[in-house]
Amino acid sequence: MTSPDVLVIGAGPGGYVAAIRAAQLGKSVTVVEKGEIGGVCLNVGCIPSKAIITASALVSRMRQADRYGISVTGVAVDMAKLVAWKDSVVKRLTGGIGTLFGKHTIRVVAGTARFTGPGKVAVKTAAGEEAFSPGATIVATGSRPVEIPGFSFDGERILSSTDALALSAVPKRLLVIGGGYIGLELGIALHGLGSEVTVVELTDSILPGTDPELSAVVHRTLKKKKVRVLLGAKALGWKETPGGLSVEVETKKGREEIACDKVLLTVGRRPNSEGLGLDLAGLPVGPGGFIAIDAHCRTGAEGVFAIGDVAGQPMLAHKASREGIIAAEVIAGRPSARDWAAIPAVIFTDPEIASVGLTEAEAAAKGIETVTGKFPFGANGRALTLDAGEGFAKVVAEKGSGVVLGVHLVGPEAAELVSEGALAVEMGATLEDLALTIHPHPTLPETIMEAAEAALGHAIHIYTGK
Amino acid sequence: MDSFDLVVIGAGPGGYVAALRAAQLGMSVACVEKEKMLGGTCLRVGCIPSKALLESSEHFETARDGLKEHGVKVAGVTLDLPAMMKRKDRVVRTLTTGIDGLFRKNKVARVEGTARIAGPGSVVVTTAKGEETIAGKHVLIATGSRPAGLPGVAIDGDRIGTSTEALSFSDVPARLVVIGAGYIGLELGSVWRRLGSKVTVLEYLDRILPGMDAELAAEAMKVLGKQGLSFTLSARVTGARLDGAEVVVEIEGKDPVRADRVLVAVGRSPSTEGLGLDAVSIATDGRGRIEVDEHFQTSAPGFFAIGDVIRGPMLAHKAEEEAIACVEWLATGYGHVNYDAIPGVCYTDPEAAAVGKTEEELVAAGTPFRKGRFPFLANGRARTLGRTEGFVKVLAHEKTDRILGIHILGPRAGEMIAEAVAALEFGATAEDLARTCHAHPTLPEALKEAALAVAGRALHV
Ligand SMILES: Cc1cc2nc3c(=O)[nH]c(=O)nc-3n(C[C@H](O)[C@H](O)[C@H](O)COP(=O)(O)OP(=O)(O)OC[C@H]3O[C@@H](n4cnc5c(N)ncnc54)[C@H](O)[C@@H]3O)c2cc1C
Ligand SMILES: Cc1cc2nc3c(=O)[nH]c(=O)nc-3n(C[C@H](O)[C@H](O)[C@H](O)COP(=O)(O)OP(=O)(O)OC[C@H]3O[C@@H](n4cnc5c(N)ncnc54)[C@H](O)[C@@H]3O)c2cc1C
């Protein structure tokens, strides 16, 4: 029986960050991982998807190079090379985590963990089984893609996001089921690499849950790219045909057979809470399979913490990491809690979407009166020098006090710009604070400043009336 | 004679922003600009055209050398310089005509001509049609700056030119010598290097990017050097002369350098010649800059000055901020610029961006501080972009943890610095920055990690 101070189950961005933070605070730490260090995020999520998006954006740019006064001929994709580069990026980052584990003397056990009783964990490894009775246990087992009736992942025709990230050739025709961020990011990337793409989405809008004003801009560019988007449409089943696959889709106008070569199924993710022996640990599993936690990431069972995708929405890497830090600090006796004002969300579509804090609708639902300012990238000098004038920045503030409640962007580099908004919301800044902060010229975040000015009624580079 | 609440001389980012903001505040405003295009140095021959060329030339270099690794193949890549210049001109035109539109909507009277101060509240404008006198309750001088010269170097606007010429070369010079390793020299040097020139940068000091943090500048020099810019430091240029089709640049104590073109980028001087400052006794300092108080009042009652023509960093956003502060003070009695939080950006690749104090300044002032540093090599987003050069450095007060300066060398540093400015402006501590949730995978996570590193607890190094 081994008894580290802290046992972490799962080495994704939740688990590995918790392990490092606990080690920084002087705890002895063991991490159990059944797959690869880095979890979904580093191996089959955020990182490889963004690498492929980078390559795809390069291809698109080369196809339009004449815009910049460059003539480029014979643009082609070498998928094997692209995948090798993507893999090298993943390997460098996961290798980096391994090195950090070594420096912090964190023990890594390759195997599958399950609870065998309150405060007791057994790990099945290649060599057999090892029993642990740790001081505290952090469950960071993450999530996995879900399937729908009629569609089961086979890695060949019906692909998960993981399969799509490992494609060795660009499919000629791709049908994406599920128009959430994962489906659209990968769909747009593969479109850039040469696929003909159709998106089938059950609800009435792409990117459900996103401010419709933002998703509308992405929807427009999808149309421009000739990506077909079917909204309010349900995929019923599929069959093989001589030329590939045929997917039956129920649309508002009736049933339709859509021909394609591969189906990418991205309809959501489910927490990995089964098979963990949670009942033996005395841990009830909540609605949707999530483990319920309190403000300190504590579960209902003594000494057991849960973080990341398995502990609830939003299923985002930085939320997992933040909870990892909190759990580790709480275990070390530090005052730490999930009391953030805002968690940003970023979507690497074309153009990107990024959002932090409340939208107007969310504020209204809370009974807060708001003022909003908007500024288009089309009136921003930097955006024009980048040939990226699509989209806008929007700042939402409380009426009267002017306290910034949310910052929402759709446009070039939106993901890199939103952190300023997160800081503003986190620090309780007002519109005037953002407006009076000197933003360098010419840069994209000038749009945030001008949106704040617009909310105050006096943006400089657009006319807002008197 | 037309008479206005405010007459603005110059329609650069200082002047046009002042005119627009004054109109918003209900003043009647005229803006005199001698050039056909509004927008000043920045929009016509500064920030905007330089960034347009930087972007195009970066794509050219990527097309030539930066694709293979990412699995993208191309058969042929050729430069169409006239088309590249046309795109630049189009971007400039879109933005400058945008200012025309804003002037119309805000009812700012635009006067095309050269202004001269005639007396208290009186400005004479020489237009195509003759002279015209306009009266202003307040007169705001925003005449900006022009490239400074160098003794012994005769700028002929062709082989030996300034940034203005280097934004419009008709061909790619085989050898380009850049005199001055400030941001303008490095940006335009980078443009022509990417397009095929062999570029030599001569700098009088023993370092590049004077004024920026020394550690950052040293790293930038290493990276830019690897890209092929060649640097000669501690080089005092004593002259440049034409020798047939070549230019010979003489350096004190060193061998002369031969080039096809020379770009003189040794700074900028305030533009006040012919402006009639003497007519109302407006005082200037030893460097020819108009002296102002904290409300931008000159020594002559009713006359104000902002932007490159007064003290402080010669930057567009500094001019804009002064414009707003000056005009708001006139209208409301309030208006203030925080000179401790003016960011600077150099748009090389990687970009260099900074706000607040440098390490040297803190050491010199004896301020106790702690330093957190985080390399982009360890940032996931940088890896996925294949752009991992550089680092973020956060300097915070040793006792209070208040952020004193942030210095970034890296991809999109110019976009990232806005958050740093906000942090400084809000009086944030390094811990505030570290505890703000940063989205993954994004570049500003490096800023968060550097803030964590201030307390010795970065996660990813
Ligand atoms: C294609 C794609 C793109 C994404 N892009 C983004 C993005 O851009 N930004 C963002 O914020 N989020 C993104 N996400 C979501 C992000 O990947 C997750 O939110 C994040 O990985 C959750 O971290 P985690 O630590 O909770 O779990 P995970 O990363 O899922 O890690 C859990 C780990 O636990 C291990 N494990 C599970 N059960 C056991 C067991 N019993 N014993 C031992 N080990 C076990 C698993 O093998 C896994 O390695 C993306 C996801 C996908 C699929
Ligand atoms: C190549 C280059 C790149 C640059 N890049 C950047 C950058 O990336 N970021 C940044 O912040 N700054 C940059 N700058 C600096 C920036 O352009 C200046 O700081 C800014 O333009 C100053 O604004 P201003 O309004 O004070 O003066 P200016 O922009 O110089 O405008 C003054 C205007 O006044 C007019 N004028 C002068 N005298 C008279 C007269 N007597 N009558 C009528 N009109 C008159 C001039 O024609 C001019 O249009 C760059 C400069 C150059 C040269």
Report what the structure shows.
The complex is a heterodimer of chains A (466) and B (461). By secondary structure, chain A is an alpha/beta fold. Chain A folds into 3 domains: 6-145 and 270-331, FAD/NAD(P)-binding domain, CATH 3.50.50.60; 158-267, FAD/NAD(P)-binding domain (3-Layer(bba) Sandwich), CATH 3.50.50; 345-456, Enolase-like, domain 1 (2-Layer Sandwich). Chain A contains 13 helices and 24 strands. Chain A has a 7-stranded mixed β-sheet. In chain A, strands 10-17-11-12-13 form a 5-stranded parallel β-sheet. The model of chain A has no long low-confidence stretch (mean pLDDT 96). With 461 residues, chain B is an alpha/beta fold. Chain B has 3 domains: 2-146 and 269-337, FAD/NAD(P)-binding domain (3-Layer(bba) Sandwich); 160-266, FAD/NAD(P)-binding domain (3-Layer(bba) Sandwich), CATH 3.50.50.60; 341-454, FAD/NAD-linked reductase, C-terminal dimerisation domain (Enolase-like, domain 1, 2-Layer Sandwich), CATH 3.30.390.30. Chain B has helices at 13-24, 40-45, 47-65, 81-105, 163-166, 183-195, 214-227, 316-332, 359-365, 380-385, 413-425, 430-435, 445-454, and strands spanning 2-9, 29-33, 72-73, 76-79, 109-112, 114-119, 122-127, 130-141, 145-147, 160-161, 175-179, 198-202, 230-232, 237-243, 246-251, 254-259, 261-264, 268-270, 303-305, 344-346, 351-356, 369-375, 391-397, 403-410. The chains are: A alpha/beta (466), B alpha/beta (461). Chains A and B meet through helix 1, helix 3, strand 3, strand 4 and helix 4 of A and helix 1, helix 3, strand 3, strand 4 and helix 4 of B. Strand 4 (76-77) of chain A pairs antiparallel with strand 3 of chain B. The complex binds flavin-adenine dinucleotide (2 copies). The site of one flavin-adenine dinucleotide has 34 residues of chain B, from helix 1, strand 2, helix 2, helix 3 and strand 6.
